[in-house]
Each structure stands twice: as C-alpha cells, then as structure tokens.
Specification:
The protein is of the alpha/beta class. The protein has two domains: 272 residues, Rossmann fold; 83 residues, formyl-coa transferase, domain 3 (2-Layer Sandwich), CATH 3.30.1540. The chain is built from 16 helices and 13 strands. Helix 1 packs across helix 6. The protein starts with 7 loop residues before the first strand and ends with a helix.
C-alpha cells in the first residue's frame, strides 16, 4: 500500500504544474480522479507530435506531453458549466481529501466550485489553487504560462550566453521548469496541510503562484542581487560564485568540470599537467579564481582540448574531481547508472500495448512508489467513478451521458 493510499484527490488541473503534483500524489498511492472537459480533455492531449504509436506504428492520438504527467490517475469527463456537472463535482469534492485546480482567479466561483463554496460541504478539504500570479496582487487576474514566467521572474536574465559572445541573449530552460517546480512546491504544501489536518483538524486553501515559485527558486542568484544591489548577468554555462564550474572543450566534444573547493582544484591541476596553477596566487583560492576567471578559463581551455571527453572523465573521477559528459537523451537513457536505477520503464496501455514512462525519483523503503496504471484515455473511468464513488445507478449515468453532461 502506498504512503498516501488512504487519500482521494480530485484533480481539476490541466497542462503541467497541477497534473505534475497530482501524479506525484498518485505515485505515492493516492486515488487521483482527473476531471476533464468532454471531447477535448486536458489541453496537452493535443500538444503533439509526437504521439504514442501502437504496435503497427500508427498514432494512437495520445500526445507524449500528456503522457508525461498523468499516470496512475482515473479520467472522468464532466461538463461543469452545466448545473448537473457542478453537482457531480460538488459530490466528488464532498468525498475527497484534496482538490487541485489551476483556473484563473475566481474562475470556479461562477460555478460554485471555489474553496469558500466547497468547504461548506467538506470542511476537511485541502484545496490547492495554482495560478500564474496568485490570488492577490495587481497581476492576479492575468493568465500565466511557464515561458513568460521564466522571463518575468528573472530566470532568463541568467540563462544564455554572456553579452558580447556570439549567440548572446536570453534563453529559456529546455523543459518547463517553473511548472515542474510549482508542482513540487504544491505537493509539499499539500502534504503540510495534511499534517496540519491530522494534528488540529480542518482543511485549508493553498495559494500557489508560478511567479512566486520562480522568484523563490532564484536561490543564490537572488541573494547575490539582494546583498549587493547588482543584478547578476548571463554567464553561459559558467557559475557566478565558483570557478572553474562550467563546460570545457575536449578532443572530441565537451565535458563539464565542477570544482567545488580548493582541494579539488589542486587535484584537477595535477591531472591537467599544470600543478603550478594551484600555487599561483591568482588561482589558489576560489575567491581569487572568481576574481581572475578571465585569465584562468582560457588556460584551462587550452589544456582540455588535448584529451577526449572519456579520458577526462575517467582520469578526473579517479582523482576525485567532479565532472561529467554532456549527454543527449539517447545517451541519458543508455547510461548504466540511469539503467541501474530503473528510470525508464513501461506500463501496459490499452491502445499501444505499452507506454514508456520516466520513473519517480522518490525511493521509500517501507512504502515504495506504485505504478498502477498508464495515463488514462479521455473519460476512461467516468462510469466506474460515478458508480463506485458516488453510487449512481446505470440509468442515472446513462441519462447524464445522453444529456452531454459526461
């Protein structure tokens, strides 16, 4: 039994941040009922190609994007713009522990599905709202997407080649990182609210904002600004506070060198055949290496091109200096450590036979993550959930279907 197998989650969210949180809770054993619009469903079902293919190489119509964030869930299609649909959502919320939604501020109030309305029928409900800018403030009514939040929230001012370099300019992170981080923070908040409910009783409203999360995750770069008043600039792959901590060219490509202390730098200098670097007052401490990076980095680049990436990685690992290759995703999933940890897996799928998945990184010794089912087909569990959770009879379900409510 999963750690959260005693919980039911009503997931009204779509795209990524909310569904990512829902998938984490589902992996941990919670029953997650994903409520989608009839016919079209979650926006990401159409975000392709690529689409999952069946055994004959034909498209199943299931977008890879959607498949990344919705396993272990039950899909129920309900039109809650209709009064009958609103009643179904209220009835499900009355029997749920957690509700996740990412509609615009006030968007669900028109249907009587906001927190203030639902807590009247379920005071124990933990209601997590995820928006671009939160429930308050001058931007609260605005829609927010990961890309724009990466820009607005400062991440893109730190990502990309430095000014003056060829190809300089702001660059977004290659995955929707703000959405993912918001899903993670939302999960943490939900678990905290559950702990409070178990201790003192009562649910609560959680107000999560992509912008808040993005600013919070600026971490050391935020503190670099707040302690100096000087906004950090883009450094490409270099680190603002540590040198050398970036990519370097090799005889057959590039590799990443991450020297975290002066002892590691001394070991690197030995492997590089330049032991005098460690005693040079310009480079002997990290503080001095940061101050003199313009002199040191070209010297390192001149040295690293004489060995292959594999040679550098092998020799530096033997010396205890952190480093690694720059892998594409084919190399990632063929990496022996990735294989040993079982990060690529398959789940049975009704249309394709099997669907690939990336395993959860959570490893619990007593209540391990469960992989119960593939991301569901649109409306796959509507009848099952309405009958088993709400106790609706076949005639009632058939009438709702005939009326287009489900």
């Amino acid at each position: 039994m999963g750690a959260l197998s005693h919980l039911r989650v009503l997931d009204l969210s779509r795209v990524l941040a909310g569904p990512w949180s829902g998938q984490i809770l589902a992996d941990l054993g919670a029953e997650v009922i994903k409520v989608e619009r009839p016919v079209s469903g979650d926006d990401t079902r159409a975000w392709g190609p690529p689409f999952l293919k069946d055994a004959f190489g034909e498209s199943t119509g299931e977008a890879a994007y959607y498949l990344s964030a919705n396993r272990n869930k039950e899909s129920v299609t309900i039109d809650f713009t209709r009064p009958e649909g609103q009643k179904l959502i209220r009835d499900l919320a009355a029997k749920s522990d957690i509700l996740i939604e990412n509609f615009k501020v006030g968007g669900l109030a028109a249907y009587g599905l906001d927190y203030e309305s639902l807590k009247e029928i379920n005071p124990e409900l933990i209601y997590c709202s995820i928006t671009g800018f939160g429930q308050t403030g001058p931007y609260a009514a605005r829609a927010g997407y990961d890309f724009m939040i990466q820009g607005l929230g400062g991440l893109m001012s730190l990502t990309g080649r430095p000014e003056g370099d060829e190809g300089a300019g702001p660059v977004k992170v290659g995955v929707a990182l703000t959405d993912i981080l918001t899903g993670l923070y939302s999960t943490v908040a939900i678990l905290a609210a559950l702990a409070h409910r178990d201790h003192d009783g009562g649910g609560q409203h959680i107000d999560m904002a992509l912008l808040d999360v993005q600013v919070a995750c600026l971490a050391n770069q935020a503190m670099n600004y707040l302690t100096t008043g000087v906004a950090p600039k883009r450094l490409g792959n270099a680190h603002p506070n540590i040198v050398p901590y970036q990519d370097f060219p090799t005889a057959d490509g590039d590799f990443i060198l991450t020297v975290g202390n002066d002892g590691q730098f001394r070991k690197f200098a030995q492997v590089a055949g330049q032991p005098q670097w460690a005693d040079d007052p310009r480079f002997s401490t990290n503080r001095m290496r940061v101050a003199n990076r313009a002199e040191l980095i070209p010297l390192i680049r001149q040295a690293t091109v004489f060995k292959t990436t594999a040679e550098w990685v092998a020799q530096l690992e033997s010396a205890g200096v952190p480093c690694g290759p720059i892998n594409d995703l084919a190399q990632v999933f063929s990496d022996p450590q990735v294989k040993a940890r079982g990060l690529a897996m398959q789940l049975p799928h009704p249309l394709a036979g099997e669907v690939p998945q990336v395993a959860s990184p959570i490893r619990l010794s007593k209540t391990p993550v469960e992989y119960r089912s593939a991301p569901p087909l649109l409306g796959e569990h509507t009848v099952q959930v309405l009958q088993s959770v709400l106790g609706l009879g076949p005639d009632h379900v058939a009438a709702l279907k005939g009326a287009g409510v489900i």
